[in-house]
Amino acid sequence: MTRPHNDNFLRALLREPVDRTPLWLMRQAGRYLPEYNETRRRAGNFLALCKNPGYACEVTLQPLARYDLDAAILFSDILTVPDAMGLGLYFADGEGPKFERPLREEWAIRDLTAPDPYDHLRYVLDAVAEIRRALNNSVPLIGFSGSPFTLACYMVEGGGSTDFRSVKTMLYDRPDLLHHILKVNAEAVTNYLNAQIESGAQAVQIFDTWGGALSHAAYREFSLEYMQRVISGLKKTHDGERIPCIVFTKGGGQWLEAIADTGCDAVGLDWTTDIGDARRRVGDKVALQGNFDPMALFASPAAVAAEATRILDSYGAAGYGNTGHVFNLGHGINQHTPPENVSVLVETVHGYKNK
Fold first, then answer.
1. Amino acid 95: pLDDT
2. What is the number of domains present in the chain?
3. Which among 31, 66, 122, 281 is annotated as catalytic?
4. Structural contact between residues 354 and 322, judged by C-beta atoms closer than 8 angstroms
5. What's the gap between Cα 159 and its chain centre?
6. 2 occurs within a structural domain
7. DSSP reduced 3-state for 354
8. Given the residues 15, 36, 70, 77, the one annotated as active site
9. What is the tens place of the pLDDT at every residue in 166-212?
10. Which of the residues 11, 27, 132, 229 is marked catalytic?
11. SS3 assignment, position 305
């Protein structure tokens, strides 16, 4: 299998020369686009959108029709995995994701098993295959999963949380139970990502959204350790091509060197870490992805361009030119973002020349 016609994203992840800094955006297919909202209306609700491969393909391609992006990312949700474990995912209006059967009882935790992605998550794999066909080798397709710990947060809390009281209480009182959940989650995530690769994903990202909520010691034991297990079990090649892996821990700048040692190909950064300093810290061990503050997209077009240029300058000032950098947001794009400011961001990044 040959690489996509535009392979700058893959080349940057593998620290190969690129002709421009590649760019994609976390949540690039989402509520800030009117065409997405129309497709979601036709689907009926968010879960119906996720579970219909045709709709998932449609919304995955929508931002690429608007913007000159260098990668597509599968449209799905990280909570499809615990839903496939039988926890009963649903979305309450104005409240975000919820689980009908959160993990609160020891017997339920001990009974937890990793689902077969080819059975319980077939709709996701069908979407991956359909998107790859529709892309027609134009740009790479990114697959993804939540990290074992981030999934555990939702599974134990029963939904989103501001303080993670339930999962942290388990962490300190019954670490054995949390370790069991994480072990099962690591197996599930590994199998799920490998199935996405088999179905056509050309790179994968692990979203460790809540790892940064942990103490220094707890992060290494309960998040990093299990992401490392996942990475060690991932397919490194498929159809003769390398499959790069990105790890993104929101709030994880203090653990940058440790994340880079997991065996991943790239580390995602949020906006709280200076990308030039990050590059000096990890050298050429991994590529870096990031790290524009999503809220900066609400500023004037001139300010959007200035902030993007500042980040690119900071990376280049570390002495590595533009190789090994994938430009992205420091977290997912906000639903109220003006679409025209995304155009400014894309044009600025692609028009940037190393000084």
1. 74
2. 1
3. 31
4. yes
5. 19
6. no
7. coil
8. 77
9. 999 999 999 999 999 999 999 999 999 999 999 999 999 999 999 99
10. 27
11. helix
154 labelled catalytic: yes
Domain that holds residue 338: 8-351
User: How many angstroms separate the CA atoms of 141 and 104, rounded?
Assistant: 37
Distance CA 87, CA 343 (A): 39
The active-site residue, picked from 32, 67, 154, 226, is 154
State whether residue 85 is helix, strand or coil: helix
Question: Is residue 3 in a domain?
Answer: no
In the chain, the amino acid numbered 343 is S
What does the DSSP assignment read for 181-232? HHHHHHHHHHHHHHHHHHHT-SEEEEEETTGGGS-HHHIIIIIIHHHHHHHH
Say yes or no to pLDDT of 93 above 80.
no
Nearest alpha-carbon partner for 60 in 144, 131, 143? 131
Read off the pLDDT of residues 25-46 as tens digits, 9 standing for 90 and up: 999 999 999 999 999 999 999 9
Strand partners, 238: 241
Average pLDDT score, the chain: 95
The CA distance from 264 to 276, in Å, is: 19
Token representation of residue 25:
């955006």
For the question of residue 174 being annotated catalytic, the response is: no
The size of the chain, in residues, is 355
Active site residue 27: yes
Q: Is the dihedral of CA 268, 218, 334, 318 positive or negative?
A: negative
* Residue 13 pLDDT level (bands cut at 50, 70, 90): very high
Amino acid (1-letter code) at residue 278 = A
User: Does any domain span residue 1?
Assistant: no
CATH of the domain at 252: 3.20.20.210
Give a yes or no: residue 274 inside a domain. Answer: yes
Token code pair at residue 133: 């066909």
Give the count of beta carbons closer than 10 Å to the beta carbon of residue 23. Answer: 26
Return the percent helix, strand and coil in the chain, to nearest 5. Answer: 50, 10, 35
